[in-house]
Amino acid sequence: MELRGVWMLLALVAGTWATSSAAATSNASIARKIDASKNVVQVRTIYNVRGAGSSYQFLIPEQLHARLAHMEVLVNGNYAAFRAGEQLEHFASYDVALGGKATAGGTVKVETVAVYTDVLEPHPKEILQTEKQYMRYTDTAYVPSPYPTLSETTDVLLAEQSPREYHTGVTPWRVLQKTVAYGPYTDLTPEDTMAGGFSRVDHKAQMLGRGVSSGAAFRRLIAEIPGSARDIYYRDNIGNISTSPLLLVLDTRYPMYGGWKTAWYQGYNIPSQDGLSVNSATGEYTLSMEFGVPFEELWVEDLTIKVILPEGARDVRADVPFTVETSQTRRHTYLDSPLLGGRLVLIMRKANVVAEHNIKFKVHYKFWRPLMLHEPLLLVGACLAFFLVAILAPWGCSN
């Protein structure tokens, strides 16, 4: 009742703003599909917009927006640019340009795909090792929208076939195997959708490790690495841990329960031609690698990627298809020359990294090839100086 009271108050605040929106725009239908079967939640919402103008606005509740890791928008099946709109109380808004893309039926299909991290709450928060771990997902019962909606539905996909509990203040709803289906709900006003309260679903958590689990713990992770990888290793502070070549199946030393932590090191080598290319006309080198981590079932709270470039690299620039924090530093090794300043290290950081971020990024730089000889020449010069001293020293002593 307390939550519903808060959202009913929101209706009074948002109602004035909604009235000032373009009255001709409406949602002929909304279909929302929430995939809560994994450790991240993907929400795919399809708006069939009628009477659309030059742009369309969609809303995200602020408690979900704070955990937004990735979002993309499509208009009539094509990717479209979007930008943050007016900040509303309890909602974040976004605007997507439509540009008169109405179909023959007079509607525009706007599809949003949002991925959220850390929105599944353990329920209860503490369990015995032998008990099953249940998770709770909370979202708005209606899809919030500043436009009137003729009809909408919501399907929630769960990790198990029969959820333990499901709560909602609206009807109808039903359970279909692993899916809880809400709706259809008809003739919704902006006040309804922006005040409609919450729906909660409690379900058993899906264990990581593709089936290798015990109770509320997991023991195995699977990394997808390039087929040309060689010299694969996986170790922790104690030593090497078992792996399977190329598939890289990682077995932890002990089962991982909620709240437990572990640390390990892993790595491999690949031929340079698999990730590095050079433009013979401009002399520019391009390193192409995959962002993110090789584990499909994990998301990363804070990811740091360091690209160590050869000494003497210049005109360095990163081409990443999403926003990252970048910085540069220098690394000095035992044969680096003080004149060249050491090896340049490009550092990229991003929070809330999910599987959708595991795409190629590129680092471009220029490098003068003769600089590759300076370290061998240093070694040759040092050896030559040593032999000259060894040869000339007896002559100096005899005189």
Overview of this structure, please?
This protein is mainly beta. The chain has 3 domains: 2-204, Sandwich (Immunoglobulin-like), CATH 2.60.40.1730; 208-271, no CATH class; 275-372, no CATH class. The protein is 13% helix and 45% strand. It contains 4 helices and 27 strands. It has helices spanning 2-19, 62-65, 190-193, 374-398; strands at 26-35, 40-50, 55-61, 68-75, 78-79, 82-84, 91-97, 107-117, 121-122, 134-140, 149-157, 165-168, 173-176, 179-188, 198-204, 213-214, 217-222, 230-235, 249-256, 265-269, 276-279, 284-290, 300-308, 314-319, 325-331, 343-353, 360-366. It has an 8-stranded mixed beta sheet. A 4-stranded antiparallel beta sheet has the order 9-10-15-12, with no helix packed on it. The radius of gyration is 28 Å and the shape is elongated. The protein starts with a helix and ends with a helix. Residues 1-22 and 209-214 have low confidence and may be disordered.
Give a short overview.
This protein is mostly beta strands. It contains four helices and 27 strands.
How is the secondary structure organized here?
Blueprint: H1 2-19, E1 26-35, E2 40-50, E3 55-61, H2 62-65, E4 68-75, E5 78-79, E6 82-84, E7 91-97, E8 107-117, E9 121-122, E10 134-140, E11 149-157, E12 165-168, E13 173-176, E14 179-188, H3 190-193, E15 198-204, E16 213-214, E17 217-222, E18 230-235, E19 249-256, E20 265-269, E21 276-279, E22 284-290, E23 300-308, E24 314-319, E25 325-331, E26 343-353, E27 360-366, H4 374-398
Parallel strand pairs: 1-11
Antiparallel strand pairs: 1-2, 2-8, 3-7, 4-5, 4-8, 6-7, 9-10, 10-15, 11-14, 12-15, 13-14, 16-17, 17-19, 18-20, 21-22, 22-27, 23-26, 24-27, 25-26
